[in-house]
Amino acid sequence: MEHSSHLRPRQQDCRWDAVEHLPYKEEGSSLFKAISRQVLFDEPELACQLRYFEMDAGGYSTLERHEHMHAVMILRGHGVCLVAEEVCAVKPLDLITIPAWAWHQFRANAGEPMGFMCMVNQTRDRPQLPSESDLAGLRANPAIAAFLQTTEAG
User: Fold this and answer.
1) Is there a domain that residue 148 lies in?
2) Number of structural domains found in the chain
3) Is residue 89, in this structure, part of any structural domain at all?
4) Does 85 map to a domain?
5) How far apart are CA 89 and CA 117, in angstroms?
6) Model's pTM, two decimal places?
């Protein structure tokens, strides 16, 4: 049975027809582990981009910040995220708002992969990585220091 050009059926797990499975970022561009991305929607008429990121068990995204805001929904798995001054456990269907210029990072629990949808402006700035001074400021918060230590040890 043929499907509509408006429909991209789910293949398996969190993969879709006609959606390329891509590396998260260029290797060596920043610290991350076992994560991939898929751009689900990137239409000028929407003025936003919807992406799906998936981390293997124990994987994590880059610690970074941007001028633009993010909207995130956890689709599967469990993990921990850092957003601004908060470290929070996350689970399926949790919604996370990442304000502009907030440091953020997602980490999957060791026992299972974690996947999330992320919506951003279609036109956006490049991520900023933390300087040693930024990291020292973040580590002044004990919860963030523990989160970063776990991620850096991974």
Assistant:
1) yes
2) 1
3) yes
4) yes
5) 16
6) 0.83
CATH of the domain at 81: 2.60.120.10
* CB of 83 closer than 8 Å to CB of 148: no
Phi, psi of 94 (to 5 degrees): -65, 145
The set of catalytic residues is 118
DSSP 54-86: EEEEEEE---BB-SS-EEEEEEES-EEEEETTE
What tens digit of pLDDT does each residue of 21-37 get? 766 765 555 688 888 88
Which spans in the chain are helix H? 132-139, 142-153
Instruction: Give CA–CA dist 113/66, Å, rounded.
Output: 25
Q: Which residues contact 102 (CB under 8 A, 6 or more apart)?
A: 65, 83, 84
Calpha distance 25→104 (Å, rounded): 16
Which amino acid, residue 40?
Answer: L
3 found inside a domain: no
Cβ contacts of 6-10, under 8 Å, gap ≥ 24: none
Residue-number span of the structural domain to which 36 is assigned: 22-153
